[in-house]
């Protein structure tokens, strides 16, 4: 079957290589200002295009999906793995399939997770802030002394692709023991001798680092809650490169301010790009602006995944990465 030249609506700019590939196969409407679109603009874009390609920064609710269904939209090709920003139930009700981009951002996100772990251990964020503020008085034996990461224990919440990639980097690169919680049984981790535990709290109690890699869903909402944080030992660290909703931020702030835990490295937040001021003011934190997949190789590959799914749809083939 020949490929139809459909119209596609892209809500944010992509790397050039991915945009060029998209233009080869589709009539594309880009958000040329690359600024967040309001609900009215999203509704209009969905209604007037065959395919919509939103990102994690777009809230695609039932109203937007209904507008698309009443108009031309017949596929939501998400630029990203997580789809918690899309009302999947509404898409299903309107018979609009949803695709995503799994696999291609595993390594980039795992690398950033290790970056946050190292920055917390070695107090790198504090050091850079001090240096840039002109407050460094020179080397001394007691200045910004951190902790070794080698030989510690890593607790992973959600042992999917990214969780496994983090575990292997931590184990083989730094000699960390690995324990984890996952709702279903996990295979393929014998090489790192990872131990699956029965609960989040059990993992928290056993670990020097807690790293979250579960998808955001009603089942995982604030899975790292006040009780789980209380199970952590003083000096342990929280790292989140998953989604902001999987952590109870209010409870995390309390734990940080009280010294109940050693610190937190966060790349994602509830309600981003708005950040809870209490998170910004909390001590012992490394805070990044959602950079988990931010390598040129990964962001381009994500765009090419969208193109792959959109092309399959255009010729009536099964989606490569169906979500709903």
Structural features:
single chain, alpha/beta, Rossmann fold, 2 domains, 7-stranded parallel sheet, globular
Give the terminus-to-terminus CA distance.
24 Å
Strand order, largest beta sheet: 8-7-6-9-10-11-12
Q: So, the CATH homologous superfamily of the largest domain? A: NAD(P)-binding Rossmann-like Domain
Strand content bin? 5-15%
Structural notes for this entry:
With 324 residues, this protein is α/β, with parallel strands linked by helices. Helix 1 packs parallel to helix 12 (296-314) and helix 5 packs across helix 7. It has 12 helices and 12 strands. The chain has 2 domains: 7-104 and 296-314, NAD(P)-binding Rossmann-like Domain (Rossmann fold, 3-Layer(aba) Sandwich); 106-287, Rossmann fold (3-Layer(aba) Sandwich), CATH 3.40.50. The mean pLDDT is 96. Helix content is 37%, strand content 13%. The protein has helices at residues 16-25, 39-47, 62-70, 88-93, 106-122, 124-132, 161-174, 200-206, 226-231, 249-258, 277-281, 296-314, and strands at 7-10, 27-30, 51-53, 75-77, 98-99, 153-157, 177-181, 195-196, 209-212, 237-240, 263-266, 285-287. Helix 9 links the parallel strand 9 (209-212) and strand 10. The strands form 2 sheets. It has a 7-stranded parallel β-sheet with strand order 8-7-6-9-10-11-12, with helices on both faces. Strands 2-1-3-4-5 form a 5-stranded parallel β-sheet, covered by helices on one side.
């Amino acid at each position: 079957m020949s490929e139809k030249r459909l119209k596609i609506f892209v809500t944010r700019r992509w790397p050039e290589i991915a945009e060029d590939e998209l233009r080869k196969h589709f009539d594309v409407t880009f958000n040329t200002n690359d600024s967040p679109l309001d609900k009215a603009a999203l509704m209009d874009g969905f209604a007037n295009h065959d395919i919509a390609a939103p990102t994690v920064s777009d809230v695609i609710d039932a109203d937007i999906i209904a507008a698309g269904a009443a108009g031309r939209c017949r596929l939501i090709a998400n630029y990203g793995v997580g789809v918690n920003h899309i009302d999947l139930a509404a898409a299903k009700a309107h018979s609009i399939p949803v695709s995503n981009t799994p696999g291609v951002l595993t390594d980039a996100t795992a690398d950033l997770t290790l970056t946050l772990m190292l920055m917390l251990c070695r107090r790198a964020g504090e050091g850079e802030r001090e240096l840039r503020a002109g407050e460094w008085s020179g080397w001394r034996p007691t200045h910004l002394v951190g902790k070794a990461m080698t030989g510690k224990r890593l607790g992973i919440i959600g042992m999917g692709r990214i969780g496994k990639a983090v575990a292997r980097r931590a184990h083989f690169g730094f000699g960390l023991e690995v324990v984890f919680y996952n709702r279903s049984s996990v295979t393929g981790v014998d090489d790192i001798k990872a131990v699956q535990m029965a609960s989040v709290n059990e993992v928290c109690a056993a670990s020097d680092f807690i790293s979250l890699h579960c998808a955001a869903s009603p089942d995982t909402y604030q899975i790292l809650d006040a009780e789980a944080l209380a199970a952590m030992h003083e000096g342990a660290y929280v790292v989140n490169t998953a989604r902001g909703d999987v952590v109870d931020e209010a409870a995390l702030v309390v734990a940080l301010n009280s010294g109940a835990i050693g610190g937190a490295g966060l790349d994602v937040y509830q309600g981003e790009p708005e950040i809870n001021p209490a998170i910004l003011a909390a001590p012992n934190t490394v805070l990044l602006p959602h950079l988990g997949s931010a390598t040129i190789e990964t962001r381009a590959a994500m765009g090419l995944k969208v193109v792959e799914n959109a092309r399959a749809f255009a010729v009536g083939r099964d989606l490569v990465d169906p979500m709903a």
